[in-house]
Amino acid sequence: MARSFDLITRYIPLFSEEEDIGEWIFDKENDGSKEHPIFMPYFRYKDFFLQFITDVASFDEEYFLDNGRTILEDNQIEWSQKGFCSADVTTVDAECIFALLVFAIQLERVHEGLLSSFARDGSIVRWLSRLKEIDDQLENDEDPEDFDEFDDDEEDSGSPSENPTFISFQNALLRTFETYRQENQNENANKFFRVVEQELDRFSRGEEISCGYDFDFCLRTESYIHYVSFHFETDVIEVSDGGSVYDPAIGSDSYTSWMYSIWRNGTSDVSEFNAPDFTSIVELVSEGARLSVSNPDEFSMDDSEEPEN
User: Fold this and answer.
1) Of the ranges 17-21, 88-92, 267-271, which is most confident?
2) Which long-range contacts (CB under 8 A, 24 or more apart) does 38-45 make?
3) What pLDDT, on a 0 to 100 scale, did the predictor assign at position 145?
4) Residue 23 — φ and ψ, nearest 5°?
5) Contact status, residue 32 vs residue 38, Cβ threshold 8 Å
6) What does the domain layout of the chain look like in residue ranges?
7) Rounded Cα gap, residues 101 and 95, in angstroms
8) What's the first-to-final CA gap in the chain, in angstroms?
């Protein structure tokens, strides 16, 4: 397997630093009656972990589902949770690591929350670290002359898809769009979301955004305004979370909670404020925030002005 594994080994710091990758969600609102049945508990993973699962699947998932058992047997790895956790991967090849990852993800569908166990006991970090060792070895084995034709800028270039913060942002924004679709029947907004989703996909690969986009989600009450604003340019996406609070005694007071920027080369920046909380975007729309689009002109709208259905 000659391809680079950076797409998933970049998650090593996140798995190493995150104490919790998700939580069990229990239904505490319903009483179990016929009218209010209790929903089964489920494990809610953090955004970065869901994207990790998607990235693993991109490495020819069907091949490993078809051949994984044989690969694991050839490497004397027992087909069980204990066998996966105790597997010695110090000398296995990349195929074996991917077999472990793909089948661990498949087992999650039968034993919900199992992946969190593999993360907590360090198994996933061990597997990914072995992949990084293989990548490093492949890089050292390359002939330096093979890279003479590239300049320094090209060697140092990257893409947003290699930045875990962008992955979290992208997932949160897509979830926000889906939440808005469920709560609001607005075909113009749906058309706009589809275009932005396409732009996000291209931008994630390091491609230019086709034109400028300016939009926000804003929640207004008598005492406060809370918004998240988005600015898309050719080479950068900027997001800011803020608003204003009104007190009759002192008037209005504006604030900024956090700001986030991501460039087409994959570098990101959080300037002078708290770390971005991308889940707040989804929560804001869930609470009733409305969409406003000021650019481009063809999608210009203020959904808050539409009458309630």
Assistant:
1) 88-92
2) 42/112, 43/112, 43/113, 43/116, 45/21, 45/115, 45/116
3) 45
4) -155, 155
5) yes
6) 6-142, 160-305
7) 10
8) 55
